[in-house]
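Entry:
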Amino acid sequence: MAAPLALAVGGGLFVAAPAAEAAPAAACDTTSTPYTYVVTYQPGTRASAVDKELAAKCGTKIAYYDGIGVAIASSRNADFQQKIGVYRAYSGGKDVASAGAAARSLGAVKTLEDTRSTAAAGDLSAQQWDMKAIHAPEANKVYQGSRAVTVGVLDSGIEATHPALRAAVSPAESAGCVTGAPDRSPAAWAPTTSDHGTHVAGTIAGKDPAAGFTGIAPGVRLASVKVVNDEGYIFPEAAVCGFVWAAEHGFEVTNNSYYIDPGMFYCPKQPGDAAAFEAVRRAVEYSTHHGVLNVAAAGNSGFDTTAQTTDPNRPHPLDPSCGILPKAVDGVVNVSSVGYAGTKSSFSNYGEIDVTAPGGDFGQTPPQGEGPACPLSSVVGGSYGSKCGTSMASPHVAGVAALLASKFRGAPPWLLTRLLEGEADAVKCATTETECTGPAKNNSYYGHGLVNALDAVR
């Protein structure tokens, strides 16, 4: 049998498949539970070669993204990862099943994002303190964004019939990516067990004059790209599918209010993790190279992501190369959260932050009549409710980015990032914020500052 070829790919180690493989020594398992894997190849590897290796090692191809050399495969064999190579294949689903009760990226913050108050009847605009904080109402009077711009909401699906969203959602650009392969049927990208994506979507581009609700960029289009399965997990294969879909359909911006399960951290030098990290890194960078600005939530663990030595979800050591995906990938805009008072939310992660935005805080309660402590937005059933989290901060930034992409058509992601940062309002570290380090215009809590929608359009 030909020896594998080791190549350096994007700073990581990639082990190419042998040119030819003999048939497996033993029959493949046909009865055990199948699990889905990401499998890395040298970019440009032919699909026929991928099919041949997977078949020889008891796997079946679900999808293959030749531009990044990542296959999504299914196998019932317990030793499939070993057959492929432990640095080339990884299954989040198998890890969850083995762990029994792994934490979920949405489930782990359930006490924040699924805590909701139903909006009172009447004009909701008075309750949208988060929009006022970033000057979105003033921006709306100047410019609401272009229909030529699409924001991909990589999340749990969007309720396309919601009064605030039915004019914004683009079915032709939406897809379900939960399996790792895109499915354009409406059922595949509609919400099932979570209204998280619907809430995020409303913040970005919702508009319901009858309810007095308006998001940041109601003039742009939204694409529902469902990456969250019904158990609340976002596995690497779903994220890979989502980023490639965004790249190949010309999205200008994506919002990513999640981390990839069953992390939280992935380490490119560790077995299994290496394949997941590399697959997602390639997909994110592929989208960036195709003109997509990716915005991501910093996370709700309340710690410095640069100082962690252990993963709170999985018992493995961390080194400086490890990171939370997708925000650890170069070029992704990392967003922390502030509450009504404008200071960092108690739950918000910090460390490597680009900008900040309103995500709420139960300890920063608005005066009566100005809304709940958590940002108000659309929820399933055509209703409105509030949720707290960096998941809610991130779409505020994606909405401002959509305004910038509308104003500066064709601007590359690096320029949109620079504009976001340059036009943000500086937030300096308070004397009581002893863990906050850096100057007012670039610190570990607030990055370059609070995004400003009005400055984005004028």
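The first strand starts at residue 5 and ends at 9.
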